[in-house]
């Protein structure tokens, strides 16, 4: 018999959401001809964030406590080669 999969609630803090918007702008600015790379990178990050609902313990906990967030996890992301120096 299969066990029920527990689903956790995943919240994205306002600071994390702002960081993601800034990341999108940065990537989009590097490759102004198309937003495809920016959308693809953020889609990969979003997929990883949402996957925390099923297995949050795979990422280490952040030591600092944030009001309203009982446990914050640090999620590494894949390497993105950014813009060359301008």
Brief rundown of the structure:
The protein has 86 residues and is an all-alpha fold. It has helices at residues 14-30, 36-51.
Query: Could you spell the SSE succession in H and E letters?
Result: HH
Largest β-sheet summary: none
Spans where pLDDT lies below 50 across 5 or more residues = none
- Count of β-strands: 0
The Cα radius of gyration reads 16 Å
The N- and C-terminal alpha carbons lie at a distance of 59 Å
Number of helices: 2
Helix content: 25-40%
Write down the overall geometry: elongated
Q: Can you give the mean pLDDT?
A: 80
Q: In percent terms, what proportion of residues is strand?
A: under 5%
* Class based on secondary structure composition and strand pairing: mainly alpha
Mind explaining what this structure looks like?
This protein is mainly alpha-helical. Helices cover 38% and strands 0% of the residues. The radius of gyration is 16 Å and the shape is elongated. The termini are far apart.
Defining key terms:
0% strand; 86 residues; mainly alpha
């Amino acid at each position: 018999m299969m066990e029920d999969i527990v689903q956790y609630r995943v919240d994205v803090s306002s600071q994390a959401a702002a960081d993601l918007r800034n990341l999108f702008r940065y990537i989009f600015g590097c490759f102004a001809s198309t937003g495809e790379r920016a959308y693809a990178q953020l889609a990969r990050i979003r997929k990883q964030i949402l996957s925390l609902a099923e297995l949050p313990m795979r990422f280490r906990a952040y030591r600092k406590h944030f009001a309203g967030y009982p446990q914050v996890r640090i999620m590494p992301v894949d390497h993105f080669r950014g813009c060359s120096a301008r």
